[in-house]
Design goal:
The complex is a heterotrimer of chains A (107), B (149) and C (243). With 107 residues, chain A is mainly β. Chain A is built from no helices and 8 strands. Chain A has one domain: Sandwich (Immunoglobulin-like), CATH 2.60.40.10. A 5-stranded mixed sheet of chain A has the order 2-8-7-4-5, with no helix packed on it. Chain A has a 3-stranded antiparallel sheet with strand order 1-3-6, with no helix packed on it. Chain A is elongated, with a radius of gyration of 16 Å. Chain B has a domain of 98 residues: Sandwich (Immunoglobulin-like). The chains are: A mainly beta (107), B alpha+beta (149), C mainly alpha (243). The interface between B and C is medium-sized, with 19 and 21 residues.
């Protein structure tokens, strides 16, 4: 697992059954391919897949393209089911996987 | 246009075509074909989706996009996928979000790149086999992109 | 085409200078994003800078303690060092790096230097700029003021012609600010990344088709001091969010 800088924002605690908003901002250039005369060629380097697991199930998945802004931002909702870790994983072109966790406390 | 990231000299700035150089017709065919592929023969309904996007964006590099679909998100009736399509970007399929009743609500937000003024299309598939459809026009202001530094 | 558009905007207006915080010139959506730490990408560099603060032997923390103690530091830069050199925050960090950590300098515009500068500057966010303009700083201030007031480049424009006389007016899609620089290091949408004030100054120089000076050059350092003096009393906005 490789390191990635990310800001994950969610409530520290929630009531069981409450729908919470999760905001994810991650440090990544989302490099579109550059290949034209006069410009430095650059290969595509995109986080193409994002998935979130929590309380035993995948609760969110995104397939991303070069059309997503650099240092991508994604916001979604999830039902507060139980206290536990929300696990965030990104896969990059070339196969590198990045992973972060955030704790949600459910009363 | 969002400035490509590397402009080594001013001469290159003036002489270079856009890095994203696809023939325009191919883009439109991809866009229409992508929509058709997602619809897979289903007739979309033109309501049920709220798209929150500015009508005018100062900078095509980062445009806020919020999507809300009216759905109970129960096991019997929930949104299974949200697709964002771009009419004029080189890659028409901007993103696909996979949802389930565990989301509680069908609400997603992100930030997208817009190569130019264009239409953004949002398609929402449901567990009942329906497809909802919403379009938004966005004008991208050409910022004073003289510097590219 | 560009020249004509610029000339059309420049009646010589002898109005009193009205200097406002840079955030006042932002589009409402950008200002809202700048104020939202869960959505503003600049904070990703602050997070990396805080991690760097604790790293190495000696680390920044070994001498300076918790990074929270950097509150107010950025408000005083650029400042003159005891040896007479004018240092901005980047320059001060590099001196610590070489003189006290005994490591090679990070290099201007490197990710490490951007991150540390953002992290330290963020500790002064909202605090009023408070640079010294007298004593050893005075000659640098004069040099910076002369630079700001001198017509330059193929477009033959002085900084003040846009940033004093035409602040608040539009240049093509953009609203002209007072050019204070209080939002730097800033995440610029156009760069798709965080960058330094000197990077932005180079873009300004290119914008009027004038000589671009190197990052960290004496010309831009003196100008940076003059810009900070214009911003004295106005809030630090780093990490800023700009088009």
């Amino acid at each position: 697992m490789a390191e990635i800088t990310a800001r994950i924002t969610l409530p520290t605690s929630a009531r069981r059954g409450e729908v919470v908003t999760v905001r994810v901002l991650v440090r990544h250039p989302m490099e579109r391919a550059v290949d034209a005369p006069g410009l430095t060629p650059l290969p595509r380097r995109i986080l193409h897949s994002f998935r979130v697991t929590y309380a035993g199930a995948e609760v969110f998945r995104a397939a991303l393209s070069p059309g997503i802004t650099a240092n991508p931002y994604v916001e979604f909702t999830t039902v507060a089911v139980e206290t536990g870790a929300m696990v965030f994983e990104w896969e990059e072109d070339g196969g590198t996987i990045y992973r972060r966790e955030a704790q949600l406390t459910v009363a | 246009m969002p400035c490509p990231p590397h402009w080594p000299t001013r001469r290159a700035v003036l002489a270079a075509p856009l890095a994203l150089a696809l023939p325009a017709q191919a883009e439109e065919q991809d866009y229409a074909a992508t929509e058709r592929a997602i619809l897979a023969g289903r007739e979309p309904v033109a309501d049920g989706i709220t798209v929150d996007m500015p009508r005018l964006s100062e900078n095509g590099n980062s445009v806020d996009l919020g999507i809300k679909v009216a759905s109970p998100m129960t096991a019997e009736d929930h949104v299974t996928a949200l697709h964002i399509l771009s009419e004029k970007n080189p890659v028409p399929r901007v993103a696909t979000f996979t949802l389930s009743p565990r989301n509680g609500r069908a609400e997603v937000a992100t930030r997208i790149r817009l190569a130019t003024t264009q239409t953004i299309l949002v398609l929402a598939e449901t567990s009942r086999g329906a497809v909802h459809r919403a379009e938004r026009e966005v004008v991208v202001i050409l910022g004073a992109c003289v510097d590219a530094g | 085409m560009k020249l004509a558009a610029l000339l059309a905007l420049l009646p010589c207006m002898a109005l009193a200078q009205d200097i406002r915080p840079s955030r006042d010139y932002l589009a409402p959506e950008l200002r809202a994003m700048q104020d939202d730490p869960s959505r503003h990408p600049g904070w990703l560099w602050v997070d990396e800078g805080e991690a760097l603060w604790a790293r190495g032997a000696p680390s920044c923390a070994s001498c300076h303690g918790d990074i929270a103690r950097m509150a107010g530091v950025a408000t005083r830069y650029p400042a003159v060092a005891p040896d007479g050199a004018l240092l901005n925050l980047e320059g001060r960090i590099e001196r610590c790096r070489t003189d006290h950590q005994h490591q090679p300098a990070f290099g201007y515009e490197s990710e490490a230097l951007l991150s540390l500068t953002a992290a330290i500057a963020a500790r002064s966010r909202g605090m009023p700029v408070n640079v010294t303009t007298t004593g050893p700083a005075a000659p640098f201030l004069d040099a910076g003021r002369r630079f700001y007031e001198t017509r330059q480049g193929q477009l033959n424009l002085a900084c003040g012609q846009c940033h004093n006389e035409n602040a608040g007016r539009r240049l093509r899609g953009d609203l002209i600010s007072n050019g204070l620089g209080t939002g730097y290091p800033a995440y610029r949408l156009e760069w798709n990344t965080l960058g330094s004030l000197h990077r932005r100054l180079r873009a300004c120089s290119l914008g009027v088709r004038a000589t671009q000076f190197p990052l960290g050059s004496p010309e831009y350092l003196a100008l940076e001091l003059y810009l900070a003096s214009r911003a004295n009393g106005l809030p630090v906005e780093a990490p800023g969010l700009r088009r």
